[in-house]
Each structure stands twice: as C-alpha cells, then as structure tokens.
C-alpha cells in the first residue's frame, strides 16, 4: 500500500493521455509527485516516466481491465482525470442520431463508465478526487458545436450533482473549463454525416472563426496547471476556469445581461446580430 504525503500525493489515472491536454496533465501530475497512469485507445509506449495503458472508454470490459491493471500494480487510485473526448463540428441537424449517440458514448457515458469503475475503490480508501474536463462550451451556447456543447453541459450537471453525493465518502468532484486550446483537437474534429447545403456558408464562416481563435488559444500546459490545482486544492471548488479567456467568459456569463451576452456571442462568432 502506498502512503500519502506531500511528496507522494498518490496514484493518478488520466484518460486520453496520448497527446494534448491529457498528455500535458499527466506530465504535470507526475512532476507534482503523483504516480501516473495514462490511457489511449490503442496501446502506447511508456515515455516521460508515464505508464500508458490501452483503454476504450466506450467499452465496459476495457474500462474494467484498466482499473484492475492499475489496482494490481498499486493497490489504489487517488485521482481520476476524465479527459478522453472527441469533437464534432457542424449544424445540429446535420448529424444522424447514430453519430450523436457515438459522440455521447465517448464524452458522457465514457466519463460515467470510468467513474463508476473507480468509485468503489475510492470509497474503500475513504478519499479520492475526480476532475472532469469540461469546456466553456459547457455553460455557454456554441453555434455549430451544439452536440459537442450538449455533452459538456451534461458533464457539468453530472459533476456538480455527483460531488454532493460523494462528499460523505471523502471524495470530491471538480470541473476544469478551458476555452480554445492549441492542440490537435481542431484537426481531429468529426464532420457531420449528413451535410446540408443550407448551412454551408455559415459553417464555413464559423470554421474560420474557430481557426483564428485556436491560433491565439492557450497551451495545453495552461490547462494542465489548472487540473493540478483542482486535483490538489484542500477545499476544492466546483469549477476551475483554465486560462485568461475562460475566466473572462465565465465572468461575462455570470454578470452580463442575457440579451447583451447573446449579441456579443453572435458578434464574436461572425453571426448576424
């Protein structure tokens, strides 16, 4: 059994850790003293001192094997970072139900699968921390990202509610909300499986807005630093904005009148006001 102290905060499991935010997070946690296990859909080589394990978060058996493998090696899991996710860009009605369900299976039910597999362990330990990667699109409208934003809105409601359920067991749940981040996420965005001509112009315009914003986005390390704070705060908050833009959007959403926020959002996204 591993003893916990300031120099050894315990065992961390980070899903989707092969690149981008997940990779940066795994490295940041390791630097802070965690023993880190990262996951990717396909087996990846261990590097930078990280132990990489294969896991498909849409598969119950794969998730169960992941948790069993970590337990067999360490006997505990102190921190879970649910980072694995996929994106989808296009008009909401341009995706079939099959495509929408596949998106939710990764971004929402994937989080539920891994969390449910880890919770019995954390309850036995009498302690644990779960950090779920959300987005500013988890609390604001996101034109042409409607289905992706819906998954993040779902994670926000799930995480806040779950935190209240788990506090009696010494387990806390926190959200990290990045804005645009310079990763390969944009390049890997899925496209709708039933494109409609009526959306071509607006979709192209929104794509240009996104590309420009991504160029000015935060580095993955900015988000990783925020995850580390959320993972180690003695009195964790429910949500943590990751980066300057995310903090600004959070404040605007809370304090700007709805009509003014609506106009500003449309202007920022190049949509008719």
Topology:
Layout (H helix, E strand, L loop, with lengths): L10 E4 L5 H12 L3 E6 L10 E4 L5 H15 L4 E4 L14 H11 L1 H17 L2 E6 L12 H21 L4 E8 L21 H16 L4 H13 L6 E4 L1 H12 L2 H11 L5
Parallel strand pairs: 1-2, 1-4, 2-3, 4-5, 5-6, 6-7
Helix pairs in contact: 1-7, 2-4, 3-5
What does this structure look like?
- The model has no long low-confidence stretch (mean pLDDT 94).
- By secondary structure, this protein is an alpha/beta fold.
- The protein has nine helices and seven strands.
- The termini are far apart.
- Helix 1 crosses helix 7, helix 2 runs parallel beside helix 4 and helix 3 runs parallel beside helix 5.
- The chain has a single domain, classed as Rossmann fold.
Task: Provide the structure class.
Answer: alpha/beta
**End-to-end CA span:** 59 Å
CATH topology, what is it called? Rossmann fold
| Count of domain modules | 1
Q: Can you tell me the CATH superfamily? A: NAD(P)-binding Rossmann-like Domain
What is the oligomeric state here?
single chain
The helix/strand series, from N terminus to C terminus, equals: EHEEHEHHEHEHHEHH
Radius of gyration: 19 Å
Q: Provide the spatial order of strands within the biggest beta sheet.
A: 3-2-1-4-5-6-7
Organism: Mesorhizobium prunaredense
Protein name: Short chain dehydrogenase
GO molecular function: oxidoreductase activity
Keywords: Oxidoreductase
């Amino acid at each position: 059994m591993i003893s916990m102290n300031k120099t050894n905060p315990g065992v961390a499991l980070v899903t989707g850790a092969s690149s981008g935010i997940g990779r940066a997070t795994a490295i940041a946690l390791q630097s802070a003293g965690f023993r880190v296990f990262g996951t990717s859909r396909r087996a990846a080589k261990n590097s930078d001192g990280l132990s990489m394990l294969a896991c498909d978060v849409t598969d119950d058996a794969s998730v169960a094997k992941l948790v069993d493998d970590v337990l067999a090696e360490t006997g505990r899991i102190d921190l879970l970072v649910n980072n694995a996710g996929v994106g989808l860009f296009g008009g909401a009605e341009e995706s079939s139900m099959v495509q929408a369900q596949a998106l939710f299976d990764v971004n929402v039910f994937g989080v539920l699968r891994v969390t449910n597999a880890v919770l019995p362990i954390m309850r036995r330990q009498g302690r644990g921390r779960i950090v779920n990667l959300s987005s500013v699109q988890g609390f604001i409208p996101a034109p042409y990202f409607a289905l992706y934003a819906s998954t993040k809105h779902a994670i926000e409601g799930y995480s806040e509610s779950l935190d209240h359920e788990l506090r009696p067991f010494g387990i806390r749940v926190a959200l990290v909300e990045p804005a645009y981040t310079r990763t390969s996420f944009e390049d890997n965005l899925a496209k709708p499986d039933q494109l409609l001509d009526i959306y071509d112009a607006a979709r192209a315009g929104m794509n240009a807005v996104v590309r420009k914003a991504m160029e000015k986005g935060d580095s993955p390390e900015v988000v990783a630093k925020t995850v580390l704070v959320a993972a180690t705060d003695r009195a964790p908050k429910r949500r943590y904005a990751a980066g300057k833009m995310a903090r600004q959007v959070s404040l605007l959403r809370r304090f700007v009148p709805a009509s003014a926020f609506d106009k500003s959002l449309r202007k920022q996204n190049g949509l008719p006001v």
